[in-house]
Every structure is written in structure tokens, then in C-alpha cells.
Fold this protein.
Amino acid sequence: MIKAADSAADLVHGAGDHASEGAVVRVRVLRQDVAGGESYWERFEVPYEPNMNVISVLQKIAAQARSQDGRKVAPVAWDCNCLEEVCGSCTMLINGRTRMACSALVDRLQAEDGDEIELRPMSKFPVVRDLVVDRRRLFRGLEKVKAWVPVEGSYDLGPGPRISPEEQEDAYPLSECMSCGCCLEACPQYTKVEAVRRDGESEADFEKRRKAAFDAGFVGAHAISQAVLFNAHPTGRMIADERMEALTRQGGIQMCGNAQNCVAVCPKRIPLTRSIARAGRAATIWALKRLFDR
Amino acid sequence: MSESSPSFLERHQFLIYRLFSLAGLIPVGAFLAVHLLTNASILAGDDGRTFQSRVDMIHSLGPLLVPIEWAFIFLPMLFHAAVGFVIIANGLPNVGSYAYVGNVRYTLQRATGMIAFAFIVWHIMQLHWLGKPFGGGRFDPHHAASTAATALQPILVSILYCIGILSTVFHFSNGLWTLGITWGLWTSPAAMRRANVVSIVVGLGLAAAGLGALGGFRSLDVPKARAAEVWTEKQKRALAVPGGAVAPAPIPATTH
Ligand code: HEM
Ligand code: SF4
Ligand code: SF4
Ligand code: FES
């Protein structure tokens, strides 16, 4: 595609810019200025470069801070960090599907979905600004199931037990979770929870109410998988019952409807449905034990 | 904060959802299988005699039939349906964005659950004696094949039965697969694939039984079936067994 000589990109970069013979990338971004505010679409156009990904497109948009029709606008806000699909911070809806922006290549997007790229913030979390969302509920899910190995204490506990290579092989894929939230975004059972602070409500009261609202909803595939990971760990297993209790509380594993979208969209290809079924089995046994051992 | 204190349903969510899942298999799913296979006996080609004898067997329960029906069929089904509607209301299907097979099945599971509910209510009203006050209840256990066949004759009724049967069978056999994940019977992707084959075979089998029965009733020679029923009736009356039951009632001396 050949862009018009007077387009926004030209105004910014000026004539004689290196852009490869005027090719451009067109982007449509669903923006929102403040939390709880109205959202609106804005179009951008940036010069094309080979091997661009969505983050590099966003960097160019930020640099020019102008919409396609040449208006000066606030730069689009987004989250990113590692730029190599390991930190999990750059999740967004790219052409309608949840994925990592840093690994979404422009060439491939254009080949698969056509010319214009559509960027939207994740729909299951409250928007902070533009493409930045508040993923506290994701971390609350991990907290709920105690996704850690309990080693805190006042004295040295000594070396941990050995873990066989087979167990390591089983656990390793689960340990790759980067808390990106793709599994939650695509899950039809994980619906948005947005608590709004009331007039005159103290920060502590609001925090408490928000936590309760989070806990009432589905805990999510990521947390179920982490519970399975730490319940398989010889030291982590010491609080296995607490994790099972959390997994069978309101919003627990029973909320999963087996749509299996989570496993299909997980960028780390974590076998989430295997984890869910294993947790389901553990929950069955745990519930029966509670019934008969009481 | 009283507003956030969880309700009974929320406090026992795990237990309720597991009972919901179990109810789908036993007794509701088990009943569905028995029901469709019983109906398929209309295909025996004996003017509904086999079918009539199966019906007689069920009705030999006599007055026990009503509490059994309520305890093992109606109430579990109402429970499953009530929880099912709550689950449906809380989900947010998204096949538009994520058209994966599993997601399509998830959505169909919900759609067919709702179709099954509408179908079963209508089906009961149309044929079961509970529907009599509403002008339905057209199935007469003493004239099983002929009354069922007559009720199913209108082409629109047959089409709706076709949709209802296929929806219910899909719902049950797909549910069989998800139930195995829910309870942790099959956990690895390979085991899930094997279980999927089994549930497809079960589904195809039940669909064949259900649609076969529908076809069997539609092509039944109603006057001949009626004659067979009247003859059977006479035999039973001669044996003086009440209600057409084959219960071991005292047989009066038949000296002639
Ligand atoms: C013939 C009647 C029915 C049978 C045999 C049946 C059977 C089943 C079975 C075996 C499951 C799988 C449970 C699991 O995955 O753990 C299921 C799931 C489900 N049923 Fe039914 N069901 C019937 C009627 C209904 C009705 C009337 C509704 C109401 C709309 C309904 C709604 C659902 C829903 C929403 C699910 C999915 C639950 C989930 O995956 O989270 N079902 N059913
Ligand atoms: S399998 Fe469960 S957790 Fe995964 S997307 Fe489906 S409903 Fe959500
Ligand atoms: S399980 Fe996969 S999709 Fe979900 S948060 Fe972890 S890495 Fe992301
Ligand atoms: S920036 Fe870290 S995953 Fe994309």
C-alpha cells in the first residue's frame, strides 16, 4: 500500500525518512483515558519496517503521538517488559484474540487478518488506561490457592527433599506460567469483576470488598494449574489440604465449564486441561476424605 | 458487611455442582438411555407387542411408579436443570472470538441443555398423564404403541421430536465426556481423546435408538397395533390381572 504524501507519519518523520518506500502499518486502538471512563476508537498509521511486532508499532505511535488524521493526541499507554514472551505483561486483544503483543508479528497479522491491526485492552480486567489493565484479580487467584512453597520460618530448615527427574519433567511445563492472563481472558467462565470505590469508603474497606468480589468469581485456570504444581512438590505438598480447601471454595474448580479455551490460547503451551482434570480428581478424593474422615 | 456474606448456594457451590454433575449421569442420564432403548423396541416389527410388554413391565410397579418417577427422574432432572440455568446465566460464551472445537462444544452443551428442557417439558405435557389437565397426556399405557404413534403422526411434531432427541442425546454424551474431566476420571490429553471416542459412540448409539424409535412409531400400522393391544388386553383381563400388570395376582380358576 502506498500512503498519501501528507499523511500523519510523514508529518512526524519528515521527508527523506528511512521508511521503506512509504509502506505503512495501520492500527485501530480502543482507547480509554481514565479508569471507569468512556472508551473510544482512534486510528494510527506508522511507517512500516520489516520484522515489526505490535510493541514496536506502539513505540512508534508513542513517538509520533498523532492520530491518523493528524491530530496531536496523548500517546497510547501499554504494558511490556521482557519483549521475549516470558514476563507476561504485554497481554492484549490483537485482532480480537488474546495474545502477547511482543510476539505478535506485524507481517503475520497482516497476512492472516488483513491490513489494519486492531488493538483492544483485555476485556476481563478493569482498564487503567488505554491498553493497560488492572490484573490484581489474577494475582489474588494465586494468593487464594497459596501458589508458593512454604519455607518461611525462624530457623534453617535444611535442604529440601530430592525431586526425581520424572517429577521434574512433569512439573516444569507448569512452572513456566508467566501470569499473562490469556487463559482467563479466553475463558467463558471467567467474567469481569470491577469493584468501584464508594463515596466515603476507606481504602481498607474498599480493599476488603474488592477481595471478596474477586473470591466470589472463578479463580481461573492459571491458579488451578499452580495449585497442582505446588501440590506435586514435596515441600509445597505440606499445605496441600489448604490448597484443596481453596480450590473447592466458592469460585473454585467447580466453576470450570470445560471449554478448553485456556489451553488453546496459553502462550507457554501449559497443559492446563490436564491440570484441571488432575485438580478435579484431587478434589473428588479430598471431598470424599472429608466426608468420611470427619 | 452483610451484603457480601455468601448465600447457601455459594457456600456449598462445590458440593452442589458435583451433585448437579452426578445427577446428569445418575439417575437422569441412565434414565435417558433406558428410555430411548425401551422406545427402540417398537422396531421389533411385531405391531408393538414387544414395546407393550416393556411398558407393562414398567407399569407393573403399580402405585409405586409415581414416587419412583418423582424421586429418580423428575426431581433430579429439575435439580440438574435449575443448577444448569444458574451456570448458563453466569457464563459468557465467546465462540465468535475463539472458535475452537472445545469452545463450540461448551456453547452447544448450554444450548442443547436449554432445548432439552423445553423439549422435555413439552414431551411430558403431550404424553405423560401429568399433562392431562392441559389437554395432553395422550399416552395410554394399555394401548402403548398405538397412542404413542398417533401422537407422533403430525409432521411438525416429528420434526420437533427429532430436534429434541438429538439435542438431548448430544447434551448427554458430550456431558459424559466433560463429567469425566470434572471428576478427574480422564486427565491426560490422550485419555481425553479416548474418552471422547467412547462418548461419541455412546451418542451415536443413543441417537440411533432415539431416531429409530421415532421412525418406528411413525411407520407403525396403527389399526394393526391397536388390534394387537386389544387382544393382549383381553388375555390380561382373562387372567384378571389389574391394570394390565403382570404381578403375581391370584389367578381365578378358569375351568372352561
Ligand atoms: C435429559 C436430560 C439431561 C441429561 C441426561 C443431562 C446430562 C448432563 C451431563 C451428564 C452433564 C455433564 C456434567 C459435567 O460436565 O460434570 C451435563 C452438563 C450440563 N447440563 Fe445437563 N442434562 C440434562 C438436562 C439438562 C437441562 C434441562 C439443563 C438446563 C438448561 C442442563 C444444563 C446443563 C449444563 C449448563 C451443563 C454444563 C455444566 C458445565 O459444564 O459446567 N442439562 N448434563
Ligand atoms: S477449561 Fe475451564 S478454565 Fe479452561 S477455558 Fe474452559 S472453562 Fe475456562
Ligand atoms: S497458564 Fe498460560 S495463559 Fe494462563 S497465565 Fe499462565 S502462561 Fe498465561
Ligand atoms: S513483554 Fe514480556 S511477555 Fe511480552
